Amino acid sequence: MPDFSYIARDLRGQRITGTLSAASEAEVVAVLSGRSLFPVQVAAEKTGSSSPFRLGGRVKGQVMAMTYSQLAALMRSGVPLLRAIHVIREQTSHPKLKEVLSDVHARVEDGTTLGDAMSRHPRVFSEMTLNMVRAGGEGGFLE
Known about the structure:
Blueprint: E1 3-9, E2 15-21, H1 25-34, E3 38-44, H2 61-76, H3 81-91, H4 95-109, H5 114-118, H6 127-138
Antiparallel strand pairs: 1-2, 1-3
Helix pairs in contact: 2-3, 3-4
């Protein structure tokens, strides 16, 4: 099995890094989730590479991890998706995130799927995040 490096956040928002042997990125995400860790980045290890991660963009990983945790908590407690996005947008003090969430909210309100709305902001939402959101939408978990 290949090795995957990961960056994750725990429930306190602390950054956790490590390596796991798994059949796929999805398996790594499942293992991390089972450990109450939120995966921020997962990448197959490359021989000779010092680090497979480039956490760029305009919103830090810790801010995004907290945003995802808040969204999950709101939705678990029965808050509809649009309302949850609105609440998080109103509570954030991060100007770029507020701008992005406003756009995502408007697009979802107009009928765009959450994954497609988020994909308009590739500097904020990673490809892995988009894939997980799309899978959740297709599975009926994000309604």
